Amino acid sequence: MKSGSLGGYIVRRLVQTVPVVIGVVIVNFMLLQLAPGDLATVLAGEAGGAPKEYIDQLRARFGQDQPVYVQLFNYLRNLIALDLGFSFRQGAPVLDLLLQRLWPTLLLMVCTLILSLGSGILMGLLAALWVRTWKDNAISVAAILVYATPLFWVGLMLILVFSIWLDWFPTSGMENVVAFHEGWDRVFDIAHHLVLPTVTLSLFYLALYARLMRASMLEQRGLDYVVTARAKGQTERRITTRHVFRNALLPVVTMAGVQTGSLLGGSVVVESIFAWPGLGQLAFQSLFARDYNLLLGIFFMSAVLVVIVNLIVDIVYVFLDPRIRIG
Amino acid sequence: MKTFWTRFLGNPRVYLGLVWLGILLAVAILANVLAPVDPFAIVGTPMATPGPRFWLGTDSLGRDVLAGLIHGSRATILIAVLATVAAVAFGTFVGAVAGYYGGLIDDIAMRMTEFFQTIPSFLFAIVLIAILSPSASNLVVAIAVVSWPPIARVVRGEVLTVKSREFVQAAVVAGQGDAAILLKQVLPNTLSPLIVTGSLLIATAILTESALSFLGLGAPNLMSWGFMIGAGRSFMREAWWLVTVPGIAILLTVLAINLIGEGLNDALNPRLADL
């Protein structure tokens, strides 16, 4: 790898993401046009009816009296300036609301990623080492079962067992707000609240990565370089840790990147179950408040997040696998 | 050389899957015979525990859980299967055209596919339903819209390898039109990966449908398993079976489809079966 080519690669990948982001903006705008009843009529309807002049005035205020292409142009221009519009429901700019809710979701996602990748890789590795024994079968059957279980149901069952029956973990929220914890107490409190949502969101991906890791290990183990290593007289342990394991990781890393979008979708469900104050819960709330500005803002932000994560995964990949020539 | 059927049916996991799916299909078809009452009808006291009168108890309004489960199988299967058929049809079309014509068409089609794979699919489905308003047909549309990209990629890959084979060139020389070559020569040879991907897609569609119904975005007036779980979640403390039972139904169904899909994969691609 020539020096400086990594920078060029990153710039090239960044440029490739531009059409995706513009695509999301256009899809967003089209959906806004499709939405039944614009915000003006909804607000007027809630006020118990309003004269037509007032509705027209509201429309003019939201810029909805202009032709569609002008509205699209305005929408694009606003987004470039990171102006995602105003949530008339919450009485705050959408961007402020999103930034407020971003951190809980990122915390949940990062913890989920660590738990699911770590345990998934470990489980897959063990299953591959114990291949065709009862232990391998036990791991594989557990993975198939978890793989088929609906996410929201896992969350509710965990609440039923660990919150309602055993009373080990809180059922909802991110922290005990009335306790006014500070410093480490607050960290422990949040960690305590974080356990069930993280486990709920992780289990599916854990099963996915475990299955993938097992298949990947078994595939790598049959390749020629393993025979070479064995012929050189390397121990089986060293072959597994130094050669097979590293190569087997690659598809798992790819899959982890691909799953970011679905992880965000899962967090909508998990956050609404556990009342976790993140983007997902905000999406759930905006859904039923018909706050389309906010909902589409969340969608836009999530898509941008996915694009960024894919970019990071691609860069990590270059470091993991030097065979991938940049350019 | 074992045939497809001996490999497929020689797999005990496939049997388990087929047995459950068989039961489920029978229940869905005979729903009105097995549970003649409207699943939304109030038939007993609220939250009766499972017993001889109501085998699985009643929900918070006094509706029969077993009747809901039986009728719910219809909505869940129907929506998932229709969404999958729509996704397979559209994905096959995009993938086949992209792979067959190549060039600019391929570029455009693949960028579009990548776009739909990049955006968070479940969130996109939520946004679609929220804006189109919840109904059975909109559920089918939303699930299909987020499910077709893998099909398009699989079909495109297969078409690319098949189109350079001699029999396709022979058809070109024989003067067959593009549509005829695609439909009669190329696509039949892409069937096996398509069947595997499509069958696994039904499982994903069921999970998506249940999650949407759980969030309250399902079809109104249609009893579905996800809706039952969503309706029962506020009463977990008093009536745990309201949430548990429909969840197990979803789990078993998705599991059965996954087992059959993997059995198909092993039987159609015997070289990979050992992995």
List keywords for this structure.
heterodimer, A: 327 residues, two-stranded antiparallel ribbon, 13 helices, 76% helix, B: 275 residues, mainly alpha, elongated
Note down, in words, how this protein is organized:
The complex is a heterodimer of chains A (327) and B (275). With 327 residues, chain A is an all-alpha fold. Chain A has 13 helices and 2 strands. Chain A has helices at residues 5-34, 39-46, 52-62, 68-80, 94-129, 134-147, 151-165, 184-221, 224-231, 236-258, 260-274, 279-288, 292-320, and strands at 86-87, 92-93. A two-stranded antiparallel sheet of chain A has the order 1-2. In chain A, helix 1 runs antiparallel to helix 13, helix 8 packs antiparallel against helix 11 (260-274) and helix 11 crosses helix 12 (279-288). Chain B has helices at 4-9, 12-29, 31-34, 65-101, 103-118, 121-132, 136-162, 166-173, 178-186, 191-214, 225-232, 241-268. Chains A and B meet through helix 1, helix 6, helix 7, helix 8 and helix 11 of A and helix 5, helix 6, helix 10 and helix 12 of B.
Low-confidence stretches of chain A: none
The radius of gyration over CA of chain B amounts to 22 Å
- Helical segment tally of chain A? 13
Helix/sheet category of chain A = mainly alpha
Shape designation of chain B: elongated
User: What is the average of the pLDDT values of chain B?
Assistant: 84
Largest sheet descriptor of chain A: 2 strands, antiparallel
Q: How many helical stretches of chain B?
A: 12
Tell me the series of helices and strands of chain A, N- to C-terminal: HHHHEEHHHHHHHHH
Largest interface: A-B, 53 and 45 residues
Structural class of chain B: mainly alpha
Q: What percent of residues of chain B adopt helix (DSSP H or I)?
A: over 70%
Portion in beta strands of chain B? under 5%
Measured distance between first and last alpha carbons of chain B: 19 Å
Mean pLDDT of chain A: 82
The stretches of 5 or more residues of chain B where confidence is low (pLDDT under 50) are: none
**E-strand count of chain A:** 2
Terminal CA distance of chain A? 10 Å
How many β-strands of chain B, per DSSP?
0
Percent of residues in helices of chain A comes to over 70%
Strand order of the main beta sheet of chain A, please?
A: 1-2
